[in-house]
Design goal:
heterodimer, A: mainly alpha, two-stranded antiparallel sheet, two-stranded antiparallel ribbon, about 60% helix, B: mainly alpha, 6 helices, disordered N terminus
């Protein structure tokens, strides 16, 4: 790690970096920016809007089901609503909202100045947004997808669904897989190659482990969905026979391909949230997490287990007994790594130095409760005989909502309360936050707990209405009342965010006294994240005597010239204390010759190379728009427009990859 | 500082660390590897669907696979494997700074790839069954067709790199784009071996 040392005026350095990294706040600047923080916040905001849309659909369904024999909604409208509710929540909210946090936090936690592929990052966002608009444009024609979020054939083939409904579903999801895959590869390479010096694999924050596991799962799981959707479109459009039992296909092929993707996807939408728990709980217990290594291993093994349990969605299809036994055992086995994580959190709380019951911690406690309830009903349905009774009933609806709300929504809200001050520079209201938590926690349990009971009493899922006197009436009314309470809870959160933007207390660099590098820079961080590339010597850099922004070699010099900046001093007060200081730094920590960040080795994170980062670019948006045109042309079966949009797509890729001065610096003059 | 200052930065960046990145030092190389991984899973899903239907559906129609003539696919295999050799040869050339050798290698690879696609088109034309005949035919055409599309994609990359080679963008220290295009080409060739084994050879064995 040795390198030349130079004297650096930090204030002047910050000015130089500002020049290189600044994106003007003009329309063009907003359309071309590749700043991971801007993109992360866009992801969060957009995903949250999709959450509200999915919530509205759920509200309409609860209004319909509040009493028996209700006819507020027609059966077709109800089908479209539950299909769009599931599809929106699973694909356009649950995963993208976590991508939003990862986008914002990964480079900051790693001590890097941006993602490994900043333009690809912008592209992931635009395609996520445009694919969402694409599927919602089906509402204009009244042909929203109506086959449920897992779209089983034959309900969704051309014979039983002749309109465009399922074409919107298939093409929009194909579009979205491009976004997810590009984002996943970006996270993997970023975590592999841009960790700051000292952050060896064993010192990575646990949120990095969960983002990494999720991203690898995406890379391997998404193609099964892609294949399933391609087969579906070919069957629907061109008369092939993949799912046609008369000509040698079978509808079960769809189920296998969908769940080979679908079950890893369940872990994709919960693992980053468990990673957030492993960051937030220790912060409010004022101690490192118990069993760091075991939690990391449990995260990875959950991701691996996720690929071996898909057929537990298909116990009722008459698979061979050996298969059901295998998948049943694997599905129970996956509760072991989940259990390890839960016990690690509980042990951390048990062994806390101090308990700080701030709002993020409250949401985390709620998350643990809901996770356990959802986990127990999961182990129940992993048992084949029980599953035969409960499958396609409201019991399953209860289970999956406890899992998704418990392990996704609650950690996400905890994450908002915890990290939004970093993003906006304003604290949220603690008082409103506590109201938010309790109202939501009560609302969610009121809505979903009775579903276990109506499910066991035989109420099938996805029925648009039900007769009176089945023992389901008052429980359904309770659920609908719970839904209203849930809506109030979410509204309190929105109010809190809007209030904080105007009136919130300004946030310091590290308002929670947390341990990792995102808190070493100001709130909100400058566009270049860190004035100097940090170094770490442990898992909790801000809790250690080592100074993340002034490495071991540099500190001696600071101490010698200015006793007030002695070792440890800056650590306690965060980065801004360094401003204006003249310090000696190893040269590779400065990186001020344009947009640059440090590349490091895969395992040990030793400095390896200087990465030249591309500047702002319009190409990601252009390519996303070209792809939108391509999918629209495919939807309307126009060969001419398909060809034109295809050429536009290839042209955009070529234009994007064409070297610029920044990505491909000219040779040194001879 | 503006990006123009890169011209003066020399071949080494701040702190004496390299800025010209090739192989596993280049994030783009890692990106290409993971892109190949996700593409590999797409073909694995296709082939998984093939074996699932063949193993579980009586009327699948795979027995047709026993009578697919082997001459064409074996010639196609030879073409693709030798195209990987020429691509490798050209890449080795630019690693030593020989731009001419790179261009010849890329051109030879291009010709072999086009020949592969022509034979594939000829095979399609000679088939009695269309992809709407049976699920087997749907899968056969979809799998080989997607692979053909990937070959075509590799050829477009080849042309793009060839263009940049003519413009003198590459030398011994800077040929990241070449390495990534060649890596992808090797990957597409490797996938073909699995397709050959699954669709052409395995029906004769079991």
């Amino acid at each position: 790690m040795a390198g030349p040392v130079e004297r650096v005026d930090l204030a002047a350095l910050a000015t130089r970096l500002e020049e290189s990294w600044h994106t003007p706040k003009t329309l063009y600047g907003r359309l071309t920016t590749v700043d991971h923080k801007t993109i992360g916040m866009r992801y969060l905001a957009t995903a949250f809007v999709f959450l509200l849309l999915g919530g509205l659909q759920a509200g309409a369904m609860r209004a319909q089901l509040a009493r028996p024999e209700s006819h507020l909604l027609s059966p077709e409208a109800y089908d479209q609503l539950f299909s769009m509710h599931g599809t929106t929540m699973i694909f356009w909210y649950a995963s993208p909202v976590l991508s939003g946090f990862s986008n914002y936090l990964v480079p900051l936690m790693l001590g890097a100045r941006d993602m490994a592929f900043p333009r690809l990052n912008a592209f992931s966002y635009w395609t996520f947004l445009l694919s969402g608009l694409f599927i919602y444009s089906s509402a204009l024609g009244g042909v929203m997808p109506h086959g449920g979020w897992f779209a089983y054939v034959p309900y969704t083939n051309a014979q039983y669904s002749p309109q465009l409904n399922m074409d919107f579903y298939a093409l929009a999801l194909l579009f979205l897989t491009i976004s997810s895959t590009a984002g996943a590869i970006n996270f993997i390479v970023t975590i592999f190659k841009t960790r700051c010096p000292g952050m060896s694999v064993s010192r990575m924050p646990l949120f990095m482990w969960s983002t990494l596991t999720t991203s690898v799962s995406m890379v391997f799981a998404m193609p099964a969905l892609t294949a399933a959707l391609i087969f579906l479109e070919l069957d629907r459009r061109f008369g092939t026979h993949f799912y046609d039992p008369v000509r040698g296909g079978t509808p079960l092929l769809w189920q296998h391909l969908f769940w080979v993707f679908g079950h890893p996807w369940v872990y994709i939408v919960i693992l980053p949230a468990t990673g957030m728990a492993s960051m937030i709980i220790p912060t409010f217990c004022r101690r490192p997490i118990v069993g760091h290594v075991y939690v990391a291993l449990a995260t990875v093994s959950t991701g691996i287990f996720g690929f071996g349990v898909w057929a537990h969605h298909m116990f009722a299809t008459g698979m061979p007994a050996l298969s059901t036994a295998f998948f049943s055992a694997a599905s129970m086995g996956v509760s072991i790594p989940s259990g390890i994580q839960i016990f690690a959190w509980l042990a951390t709380i048990w062994a806390a130095r101090r308990h700080v019951l701030a709002t993020p911690m409250l949401f985390m406690l709620g998350f643990i409760c809901l996770f356990v309830i959802g986990g127990v009903s999961g182990v129940m349905t992993a048992s084949v005989p029980f599953d035969w009774q409960a499958t396609d009933t409201y019991f399953v609806v209860a289970h999956l909502h406890y899992v998704l709300i418990g392990i996704n929504l609650f950690p996400v809200l905890a994450g908002f309360y915890f990290w939004l001050p970093k993003m906006t520079g304003r604290m949220l209201s603690e008082r409103l936050g506590k109201w938010n938590f309790w109202v939501l926690f009560i609302g969610v349990n009121l809505t979903f707990f009775p579903m276990h009971v109506v499910g066991l009493r035989g109420m099938p899922r996805r029925v648009y209405t039900y007769p009176a006197g089945m023992g389901w009436d008052w429980l359904n009314l309770v659920e609908s009342v719970g839904a209203v309470v849930t809506v109030v809870g979410i509204a309190l959160f929105v109010v809190n965010v809007l209030w904080s933007l105007k009136r919130g207390v300004p946030a310091r660099a590290n308002p929670w006294g947390a341990a990792t590098l995102e808190w070493a820079t100001s709130s909100p961080p400058p566009e270049y994240n860190f004035t100097v590339i940090p170094t770490v010597s442990g898992r909790e850099p801000l809790w250690e005597a080592h100074d993340a922004l002034l490495g071991p070699a540099d500190q001696e010099d600071v101490q010698a010239t200015d006793p007030a900046r002695a070792v440890g001093h800056a650590t306690l007060h965060g980065a801004p204390r360094h401003e204006g200081a003249v310090v000696r730094l190893q040269e590779w920590r400065v990186l001020d010759e344009g947009k640059e960040t440090l590349e490091s080795t895969l395992l040990d994170a030793d400095p390896q190379a200087v990465l030249r980062m591309p500047g702002d670019s319009l190409w990601p948006l252009v390519l996303s728009l070209a792809l939108t045109g391509l999918f629209a042309a495919l939807l309307f079966k126009s060969p001419l427009w398909t060809a034109l949009a295809g050429v536009a797509t290839l042209g955009s890729i070529a234009g994007w990859l064409w070297p610029t001065a920044a990505t491909f610096p000219p040779r040194r003059a001879a | 500082m503006s990006s123009a200052s890169y011209a003066d930065a020399g071949e080494r960046g701040t702190g004496g660390l390299p800025i010209r990145l090739t192989g596993s030092r280049s994030p783009a190389w890692w990106g290409t590897v993971w892109f190949c991984a996700t593409e590999a899973m797409l073909f694995a899903s296709f082939l998984g669907a093939y074996f699932f239907l063949r193993g579980s559906v009586e009327a699948f129609g795979a027995e047709g696979g026993r009578y697919v003539p082997l001459a064409r696919p074996l010639v196609m295999t030879a073409l693709l494997l030798s195209s990987s050799v020429t691509a490798w040869w050209g890449e080795r050339g630019i690693e030593r700074g020989e731009g001419g050798r790179l261009r010849i290698g890329l051109a030879a690879t291009f010709v072999l790839g086009v020949a592969f696609l022509l034979i594939q088109a000829n095979e399609y034309a000679s088939r009695d069954a269309s992809w709407t005949t049976s699920a087997y035919d749907s899968l056969f055409i979809t799998i080989t067709g997607f692979h053909g599309a990937h070959v075509a994609g590799g050829l477009l990359m080849n042309l793009y790199v060839q263009l940049r080679a003519w413009l003198g963008h590459f030398d011994a220290e800077r040929h990241d784009a070449v390495s990534n295009a060649v890596l992808y080409w090797h990957f597409v060739d490797g996938v073909w071996l699995f397709i050959l084994a699954a669709l052409y050879l395995s029906p004769r064995l079991f």
